[in-house]
Amino acid sequence: MKGQRRHELKEDAFVAFISSLWGVAKSRLGLVVFVLAGLLAGVIVLVAVSMYSSHAARKAGAVYAQAISVDDSAGLDDDALRDLRISRLSAAGPQLAGTVVEPEYLKELADLLFEKGGNDSLVKAVALYDKLLQKYPDARFAVYAQLSRAKALFALGEYARAAEGFAAVYADSKVDSDQGGGPAMGLGPQAKWMQGQCFLARGDVENARKAFSTCITEGPDTSWAQDAQMDLRDIRAEVPFEALPGDEKKAPENDEPLTEE
For residues 96 and 1, which has the higher predicted lDDT (pLDDT)? Predict the structure, then answer.
């Protein structure tokens, strides 16, 4: 009897436990349903956002491609084609703002305006390069935008700002060179030569000479180094050697002895 009684007590305890679990489940069923519904809704929203983003990206890509297309422009010369692209890209700007193709759009329009030249176009190009560099500083072509921006500033006669831009390109080239690769690698000599031109335009012969010397040292086999060597020869021909720190003193052509000051 005692064994049977213990068996009955165990069954009663099990039934009580199951009943307790069922009671808890029933009491919290609404919460469980709410949580599951929330998770399902989140998944649906994520899928919808992903689909919308993909559609928006495709649409923006199509708008951009159409704006730069020249398929319907047979017979136009290069200048007319460039102006047509500028007009189409400018009109498409509001549709491309904030999309995945906005960086490419800003770079393309700025490059076209820079290529067109003229004060008004160059000012607009600089503004677009500034916007690109501010919004997308890590874009794969950001350093090329920086280089073109500096060239546009140089063309506008803003030599101080241009020199700063070329210095930034040079700094990026050093980083990429140290890391063994990158979009700015190899741009150092060009940036230094252009920076030297900025210094010359401002009458800063000493810093121009330093920039040209760096260009020659870091890219001895480049065309930029050849140009820098010619610039240094011109400087030595036009400026008294005493004004060029670091130059070895040479005797004047009339062979008069040099005197130390």
Answer: 96
Whether residues 133 and 42 share a domain: the answer is: yes
Structure pTM?
0.71
- Structural domains of the chain, count: 2
Position 113 pLDDT exceeds 90: yes
Domain that holds residue 172: 159-241
Per-residue b/e over 136-148, b at no fewer than 16 CB within 10 Å?
beebebbbbbbbb
* Residue 250 lies inside a defined structural domain of this protein: no
Tell me what pLDDT residue 183 has.
85
Contacts 24+ apart (CB under 8 A), 115-123: 115/82, 116/79, 116/82, 116/83, 116/86, 117/155, 119/156, 122/152, 122/155, 122/156, 123/156
Interatomic CA distance for residues 198 and 210, integer angstroms: 12
Angle 57-61-64 from CA coordinates, rounded to 5°: 140
Question: What is the distance between the alpha carbons of residues 187 and 144, in angstroms, rounded to a whole number?
Answer: 9
Local structure of residue 256 (DSSP, 8 states)? P
Q: What average pLDDT score do residues 254-261 get?
A: 40
Clarify whether residues 53 and 152 are in a common domain. Answer: yes
Structure-token match 């180094």, residue found? 225
92 with 129, same domain: the answer is yes
- Condensed to tens digits (0 to 9), the pLDDT of residues 220-240 reads 999 999 999 999 999 988 866
